[in-house]
Amino acid sequence: MDLDPKLSPDLDPELDLVLTRDINAPRDVLYMCWTTPEHLVHWFVPKPHRVTACELDPRPGGVCNTTFEVEGNLMENKGVYLEVIPNEKLVFTDAYSEGWKPAPEPFMTAIVTFQDLGGGRTRYTAVARHRTPETAKAHKDMGFYDGWGTVVTQLEAYAQGLK
C-alpha cells in the first residue's frame, strides 16, 4: 500500500531519516497517544529513560514541549506544531517555541503519519528532517533507528492496552 500523497513528504536521503512500521493498533488510538500528555509519558522515550514533563497543544502554533530524564540528566525539548490533521498527521519542530520564538540551535522537524490499513492496523511513518547532512548523520549516529524503533514498539504495546 502506498502512502497517501497528502501524508507523504518529498524525502531527501541526505537530510531525512525515515522509520515506517505497520502497527497492530488503530490510528485514532495512536494519534491520541501522541497528542495527550497522560498517554505520551508512558511510551515516548526508550525505557528505562522517562518523560518527566509534557505539555501538548496539538494545533498549528500550539506547544509541543517535553522533558526527558536520561541517566539522571534532564533534557528539555521545546517546540511547536506546524501542521495537525487529526488521526492522520502531526508535524512539529524545535525550530520555534511558543509565540514563534526562533530557537538558537534547532535540531529537526518531525513528521508523523498514521495510515489506516484496515482491521485495526496502522502504517506508522516518522520522518526526522534536518537542516544539514551533518545534523542528519549525527542523529543517525545517536541511534535514531534503534531509539525511534524502540519507541514505536513501546507505543504499540501501550496502545494495545487501551483498546
Descriptive report:
The chain is 25% helix and 37% strand. The strands form 3 sheets. A 5-stranded antiparallel beta sheet has the order 1-10-9-6-5, with helices on one face. Strands 2-3-4 form a 3-stranded antiparallel beta sheet. A two-stranded antiparallel ribbon has the order 7-8. It has a single domain, classed as Alpha-D-Glucose-1,6-Bisphosphate, Chain A, domain 4 (2-Layer Sandwich). It is α+β, with helices and mostly antiparallel strands. β2 and β3 form a beta hairpin. It comes from Tabrizicola piscis. This is Polyketide cyclase. InterPro entries: ASHA1/2-like_C, START-like_dom_sf.
Please give a quick description of this structure.
With 163 residues, this protein is α+β, with helices and mostly antiparallel strands. It has helices at 27-35, 37-40, 133-141, 144-162; strands spanning 16-23, 50-56, 64-70, 73-77, 80-85, 89-93, 96-97, 101-102, 109-118, 121-129.
